[in-house]
Every structure is written in C-alpha cells, then in structure tokens.
Design brief:
395 residues, alpha/beta, eight-stranded parallel beta sheet, globular
C-alpha cells in the first residue's frame, strides 16, 4: 500500500535573515517564536511531516514576475546598502538591510518549491509561514515586501502545467501585489478579504476591482469595515470565497494567512480572534480538498503582535495543514513561555485559544441592508458574481 504524500513545512534558521532591523514591525522574531511553538507542540516531528529548507532563488526565477532592473537594484542595495527610492528600496516601510536579496530570494524559493511539490504530488499540502509577501510589485518593494513569493510560485505552477490557480488572501491588508501581477490573466483568480482601504494601507481592494479586460471577474475583493470581528469576518469569507473558488474550479489553491486581522495587532483595526483565524484556516483547508483534490499551498504574511498572536495563529495553521490540529484548549508549553519571559520580560498567552467560539451566521440566513459588513459583502457579490455565472442573491 502506498504511503500518502507528506505535508511539507518550509523552515531553516536561514529564513530568519528576512528582517528589516530593530524596531521594524516585520521582525523575524515572529517566525522564530512560531516555529519554536510548533516544535514544542510536536508538530514538526509528527508523522507525515517533512521539514525542508530553501535555497536562494535564481534571478531568472525572480524575473518571471519582477523586472530585471528591479532585481538588479535589490542586488545593489543588498551589497552596498544604498537606497534606491525609485524602486521602493530604503523607505520607512522597506529599509535596506544586509543580504536583503539573498534573504528575500530564499523566501521565494521556499514558496516555489512548495507549490511544485504539491503540484507534482510529492507533498499533499505545503506551508511556508515565511512567505506571503503580497505587496511586492514587479518593479518595486512595498509594504515590508521585497519579492512577491506568492506571485512567483503561481507563475511556476502555470509553467508546470496548471491550467487555473486560485489565490485567497485573508491578511488585513489588500493583496495588491498579487492582484496586480495577474490582473489580466484569466488563469488566476485572486481573492482578497481585508480591511477597507479607506482605513488601511495600501488603499486599494474595492469591490469594483474585478480584473482586466482579458480576465473579467478574476479579481475578487471584500473590503470590510474597520472594527469587524469574528462573526462578520467569517460571514464575509463564507459568503464569497467558497462560491467564487468553486465556480473558478482551480487545479491548486494558494492561500495567504496574514494574522494581522487580530484585535491585538498594532497596525490594523479589525477585531478577529485566534479562534476566528483558526476557523478560517479550517475552511480553506476543506475547500482545497473539495475543489483542488487537496492541492493546497498555505503562506504566512502580515501579523505584528509578535508574542500574543502570530505564534499561535500560524501554529494552528501548521497543525491544520499537517493534519495534526492543535486543540484550542491546549496550554502553551512551559519551555516556550519561559523563552518569552526571558526575551520580553513577560509570559505571554497561556492557551491556544482566545476563548471565543467563532460562530457566524451564513449568508443564506438573510441579508441586513443596515449592517455595514453585509453591505460590503453585497457589493462584492453584485460586482463579481454575475461575471462568474453566479447569482449574487442566491449562490
């Protein structure tokens, strides 16, 4: 009897090099604490889990998405530390740091290797929490993102023979870079569930952004009001994402799990909990099995509550992807809490839950025109559902 393909988790200590420096929100401490927590809970050594590192992506691979002049600029900045503001390098969001090219290209290779392993059935699912750098544009760094690993991985899937790829982004910020790369490509569906651009960077992702002339209906944006919590956020996800992904019928599902939707995140204004984020990961995992025969690549992304949120959210993601889900009632291991106390002078959270049940009312229960979240959902459904052959009222 053939053993099932393993689930691939991308990690090596070299991945910690993607770090913009002291005081920057995109600290690699987020990654270190996540992997240490997942390891303490036994996930990385669990049956069927393959832990793999990544090499540095070649310039040729990067240039399947990024302009050669931009890649050359990142090389220069990486070597001599010279900002190049024309390419977004050296800004407050994206300061130059030593070996920036190598660190960023390694993240890309990790996501590409994951995508190809899933496509070729060498892995059932794959997780790269260092990835999900969704703001990087073809010719510029943006929003803490140097190279767009998600876009390069999707291009690699298409080159390998995938006919359709669906990308679902649940970061608090709009997945603008991935949308821009595939704006006019009918083979790629980009779906972003995010806080409204009226209140948050990058200011895009409105319901009316639905794709280019050659790919109408392949960009789907749900812009939610600031302050949206579990019930509204999960209702929006459930009201839009499964329907459009099913209609698109992708060969592979790629998801971005930025956990800056949490109420404790210092940069955003949503009110989602760990329990809501866990529920979303479960829904997307199940959707991958339903529509893409289990081909699922899950990436990290934003998330700046370094101790209290990111490690728990992404450890739950790793647990779900590896088919070893962590009981929300689990206590965090004492050795992990001791490490937090040593580094930060406090214990941090003690359970893998925020104590919420993450329930929501499905769209089929009825639409409330007086509710801001429902109006946002309705705007998206009205803008894009008909183009995909769906009924905005009933599907």
């Amino acid at each position: 009897m053939t053993s099932p393909a393993p689930v691939r988790v991308v990690w090596s200590r070299e991945m910690l090099a993607y770090d913009f420096g002291h005081g920057h929100p995109m600290t690699s401490e987020r990654l270190d604490l996540t992997i240490r927590l997942a390891d303490s809970l036994g996930l990385l050594a669990a049956p069927g889990v393959e832990l793999v590192g990544a090499q540095i992506a070649s310039d040729d691979l990067l240039q399947t998405v990024h302009d050669p002049a931009y890649v050359a600029a990142v090389h220069r900045a990486s070597v001599d530390g010279t900002p190049d503001l024309a390419f977004g390098l050296g800004t407050t969001d994206d300061p130059v740091f030593p070996d920036m090219h190598e660190a960023s290209a390694r993240v890309v290779q990790g996501s590409v290797d994951s995508a190809l392993a899933v496509w070729e059935r060498r892995a059932m699912h794959a997780v790269n929490v260092t990835g999900g750098l969704h703001h990087a544009m073809p010719a510029a760094a943006s929003g803490f993102c140097v190279y767009n690993d998600a876009a390069v991985a999707i291009r690699a899937l298409l080159a390998a023979g995938a006919q359709r790829v669906a990308y679902v982004d649940i970061d608090a910020h709009h997945g603008d870079g991935v949308q821009a790369v595939f704006w006019d490509d009918p083979r790629v569906l980009t779906v972003s569930l995010h806080e409204t651009g009226r209140g948050l960077f990058p200011g895009t992702g409105h319901a009316g952004e639905t794709g280019g002339p050659e790919a109408p209906g392949t960009a789907v944006n749900v812009a939610l009001p600031s302050g949206t919590g579990d019930a509204g956020w999960l209702r929006a996800l459930d009201a839009v994402v499964p329907a459009v992904v099913r209609a698109f019928a992708p060969d592979v599902l790629v998801t971005q799990h930025g956990c800056d939707t949490h109420g404790l995140d210092p940069l955003t204004h949503l009110r989602v909990t760990i329990d809501g984020q866990r529920r979303a990961a479960e829904l997307l995992h199940d959707l991958a099995h339903e529509v893409a025969d289990g081909r699922w690549v899950a990436l990290g992304g934003g998330g700046y509550a370094v101790v209290d949120v990111v490690p728990r959210a992404w450890t739950h993601l790793i647990g779900i992807a590896t088919h070893h889900p962590v009981d929300p009632e689990s206590k965090l291991p004492e050795e992990w809490r001791a490490l937090v106390r040593e580094r930060y002078g406090r214990l941090g959270p003690d359970q893998m839950t925020d104590g919420r049940d993450a329930r929501f009312s499905p769209w089929s229960a009825g639409y409330d025109p007086g509710d801001d979240v429902d109006r946002s959902i309705r705007a998206t459904r009205a803008a894009v559902f008909p183009t995909l052959g769906l009924d905005p009222d009933y599907d």
